[in-house]
Amino acid sequence: MVKASNIKVYAEEYHQDMETDTVFGFWVYLMTDCLLFATLFAVFAATPQMPNEYGVMPSEIFELELVMVETGLLLASSFTFGLAMISMYKDKLKSVFAWLIITLLFGLGFLSIEIYEFIHLSHHGSPITLNAYWAAFYALVGTHGLHVTTGSVWMCVMFWHLKRTGLSIPNQTRLSCLSLFCHFLDLIWIVVFTMVYLLGVL
Predict the structure, then answer these.
(1) Which residues contact 129 (CB under 8 A, 6 or more apart)?
(2) What DSSP designation does 200 have?
């Protein structure tokens, strides 16, 4: 006869294996996402800068100061998410909610600036359909922005999960995967900021 305690141990081990498989599967997804961004970076690097409808080069129209604010917001969101993870390990649900809300606000601020930038560039003679350079620019920066949007929606879904079941093991795994996703997007943005904006204005 199998003891109840043994069944509980087997169940916990099975659950832990499932959570480990989930995190491993998410790492595999991130590797495939790396291939996507590597392709976009390669296309952008192979496309020379071209003037817009008014004969203005990209380096002359980029608002570097605004992009630096944008970068600061994204890096700050990574920091606050790290604080949310620390609160999770300390089993402080209210602190997790607070830091996640702050993280979400930073992410929405980043997206707002990016949308403004796209509108600004389009209104100043640099739409996505102008030439190969601007098509590559919008594809690269826009794909990253789409990922940030996905992360923001995912975070809103996490609020529902946390409200419903608290800091359960499945929710901790979800938060761990979301944390990996956010830090991954920060790393990608650092390359975008360097390659597209910093090198672009030189």
Answers:
(1) 135
(2) T
